[in-house]
Amino acid sequence: MPFGSFLIAVAAYLLGSIPSGFLLMRIFRKQDIRTIGSGNIGATNVLRSGARGLGAATFFCDMLKGCAAVWLGALAAPYLMAGAPVRSVEALAALCAVLGHMFPVWLGFKGGKGVATGFGVFLVAAPLGALSAIGVFFVVLALSRYVSLASILGSASFPFFVWLLVHGDKPVFFLVVQAAVALLVILKHHQNVGRLLKGTESRFGAGKRAKESA
After folding, report:
1. Angle at which helices 190-198 and 147-165 pack, to 10 degrees?
2. What tens digit of pLDDT does each residue of 182-197 get?
3. Handedness of CA 13, 17, 18, 21 (dihedral sign)
4. Considering only CA atoms, which of 74, 62, 75 is closest in space to residue 15?
5. What is the Cα–Cα distance from 164 to 192, expressed in whole angstroms?
6. How far is CA 163 from CA 93, 129, 179, 204, in A?
7. pLDDT, tens digit (0-9, with 9 covering 90-100), for 86-114
8. From the centroid of its chain, how far is CA 205?
9. Burial class (CB in 10 A: 0-12, 13-18, 19+), 206
10. How far apart are alpha carbons 211 and 214 in whole angstroms?
11. 178 near 165, Cβ under 8 Å?
12. What is the DSSP string of 64-86?
């Protein structure tokens, strides 16, 4: 791997690995989110802990770090990866930022499920696709009240929206990363899938805190 792409990959990973939910709960509630509910550090578990404001802040921060990773990657591309398609550089940063969120070095590589960060990276790299996928998320959530199902179907829809709505050059690596990130998010929800099939998954706003959050 060329040194420039290595630097972008590492920087994006480190940005993505900032554990927003963990830090916000530590700072404002003096609690370890990993000991609450599902133990997940993502926005849903923070929200279900009773900290609604911190849950919203976690989603925003996780999204923002994804946006920042891709934006900075594209900004550095002419200097570190001259000649490479910008969308390929954005895809590299996107993939590494999501991996950082899912497997943060600071927390023993046990992180979140990547929904907010995935939305953030593609809000910069493929905005129409990201907005369409988050639209699917909200429709499914409104109809089913399952955050996990909304996350899975929203993620699954994203590569198709990218193919349909992103215009101009679409390098193979760019398209592969869209599918890879969607697959990673879905795989991170494997326990939720099991509970959905058994009918034991908790619904959002049902008044019952999930043991395993989406």
Report:
1. 120
2. 999 999 999 999 999 9
3. positive
4. 62
5. 29
6. 19, 8, 11, 31
7. 999 999 999 999 999 999 999 999 999 99
8. 22
9. exposed
10. 10
11. no
12. HHHHHHHHHHHHHHHHHSTTS-H
- The identity of residue 31, as a single letter, is Q
> Is the whole-model pTM more than 0.90?
yes
CA 64 to CA 147: how far, in whole Å? 20
Sign of CA dihedral 41, 47, 48, 52: positive
Q: What's at 119, amino acid-wise? A: F
Both tokens of residue 10?
């590492």
Q: Which of these, 64, 20, 23, lies nearest to 43 by C-alpha position? A: 20
> ∠ CA(141), CA(142), CA(143), 5° rounding?
90
* Token pair belonging to 107: 């927390």
Token duo for residue 56: 């919203």
The contacts of residue 46 (CB under 8 Å, 6+ apart) are 21, 24, 25, 33, 54, 55, 58
